[in-house]
Amino acid sequence: MHNDTIGTVISSVVDFLTDQSSDLRISSINTLCKAAEYAEVHDVISIIIPSFVKCLDDEDWNVRKGAINALAGLAQRAELRGSLDSVIPSIHKRLKNQHPDVQATTATVLANLVEHAEFHHRIGSIISSFVECLNETTWSVQRIVIDALGGALASHVEPHKMVDTVIPSITKRLKDQHPDVRVAAITALAKLGENPEHSRAFGTVIPSFVNLLKDRHANIRAATISALITLDRHAELGDAIKEPALTLIEWLDEEDQRIRRSTIDALAELACCVRLQVVISGAIPSLAERLKDQTPNVQTSAVSGLSKFAEQTELRYATCTVIPFLIDCLHDPAWSARKEGIDALGDLARHNELREMVGSAIPSFTKWLKDSDPDVRGAAITNLGKLAEHAELRDKVGAIIPTLIGWLDSQDCQVRITAITALVKMSTRWLEWRPLSSLE
């Protein structure tokens, strides 16, 4: 009796799927989908699935979209999947729907449906349609399709088809006009490149990344660098991974300061890639030239890049040769270059191989402690404390303390404040390795 009553109610709701009001049609779809949460009505729901399919042709795109989502919801119930298998081609056709929201919903639903083993035999046709979509649909749909091809669907595609069809199609989207599509393509290719069976395709993919490293969108440059770092872990890609780094070095002399800056940032991030380090070490002399760049932002990136290079043991010796240029940079008219240079010295002193050369700059800290810019003075105080943490540098740091004490009687208020701040910051550390009497 109970099931008969429910069946009657569901039949009544089904009648509203053809109502003149699109809002009522959508509400009916949602109600029926909600009813499917109860196992006892699954027999009835399986019978009315054709009614959902008819809604896929509704004149209102919201109804079409609702019907697609409803069918996807029904597929979460294992008992209903057998009845839904024949429906997938009907959903499939909605990829060519004129409304982008319907297309996007269809792409998302299809990618999710094939996660169920009952629908695996549909993957081949879905992959083919997705590849077609990359040339025919809006950017929002392309992005969803690319994400699916690089993620959920990738494990179900035969390697030869991925290499011959899917990867080349995604690679073409690296030149797409919309930045979100380019980012999706970069990310998907990085994931696909982790599979050794796909390596044959990446001889042409990696060179396609090169121009993206100077894309005007920062998120695209960042995604490309991340992709190259990921791909560097896979030896099967051979020397192809080195080409972007070689091109980047050439760009260090570009006229456009934005390209010079983004190039330095990219090289600094890629310095962690083992197979690129031999190539990147060749960029260090050019990086030294950028320390004298006429554009402060480029100088700042060069200083920061030098610190990142030094974090890599294989690049540390080459970095050592640039420190004299860094010290010269500390006398630059641009306050940002002076500040970044001082911060870099504090960072570089962490490395034993560089400490002696860094120490040669310590006597000049008295000049930066009196710098006209407060950020430079602050950097000098902070990094003087950092340098004092290294036993090899303490004598040189200690030699500055009497000068600071003398500044306490200065007529210049700012000089007195700087002296007090620096002495307070250093006092605890100093007393750890020098008796108070040594200052007398």
TrEMBL record:
Q: Which UniProt keywords apply?
A: Repeat
Annotated HEAT repeats reside at 48-86, 166-201, 205-243, 361-395
The family database entries (SUPFAM superfamilies) matched by this protein are listed as: ARM repeat
Give the GO terms filed under biological process for this record: intracellular protein transport; vesicle-mediated transport
Q: Which Pfam families match?
A: Adaptin_N, HEAT_MROH2B_C
The terms describing its cellular component in GO are:
membrane coat
Q: Which Gene3D superfamilies match?
A: Leucine-rich Repeat Variant
- InterPro entries of this UniProt entry? ARM-like, ARM-type_fold, Clathrin/coatomer_adapt-like_N, HEAT_Maestro, HEAT_type_2, RSP14, TOG
Q: Where is the TOG domain?
A: 37-262
What PROSITE patterns does the record tag this protein with? HEAT_REPEAT (PS50077)
Could you identify this protein by its name?
A: TOG domain-containing protein
What organism does the record attribute this protein to? Serendipita vermifera MAFF 305830
